[in-house]
């Protein structure tokens, strides 16, 4: 009898806002990526999505993004009744994944995930595909044109299953370039930005900056900018960067 393949389950959430407990989940989508007998990763199964009653009104601001209305979720189950079976397909699951996973992690707490590790495909894209002009889920979709991605199945954007389906193609390609352990390690660190985001040096690569500019960026309020500037300073000074805890501000 063939062994059950290991999977990483890609998750996408649509919510009423950017942070619990003030905000709740209105939809969860998922798509598995499995390790094949040939040692390559590929999408597995049909995935799925479930509407969720958030227990509060859906604000117009978020309805304008995902188009899920109060009446659409009025009879849907509650989050804690839906979450565990989807987030914890034990024992096959080796990790969970999402694009900008720190957002999903706020709602998918360790008690619901059995303490699963997460892979952030945004942070891993910053490392693996540094030449990309952008790193959003949808930008990478059209910039990279992942093999096998069915266009209509990945629509509409900003709904839970289509977004998870697109992210799963990015994850598949990442897993075929780097190990699960490496992707998890990168995901636990702040993002390593390929280029400067703003100011007179916008668009430059970090090695092009002088040390005064790097020292200024190393004090920036954005943790990814601080971390990236410090990595470059430490590289020049022959030191190893001390990992910084990930406390990235969240956006819904």
Automatic annotation (TrEMBL):
Q: Kindly list the GO molecular function terms attached to this UniProt entry.
A: 3'-5' exonuclease activity; nucleic acid binding
Recorded GO CC terms: cytosol
Give start and end of each Exonuclease domain.
7-180
Q: What are the BP-aspect GO terms?
A: DNA replication proofreading
Q: Which PANTHER family match?
A: DNA POLYMERASE III SUBUNIT EPSILON, EXODEOXYRIBONUCLEASE 10
Put simply, this protein is called DNA polymerase III subunit epsilon
* Protein's organism: Sphingomonas turrisvirgatae
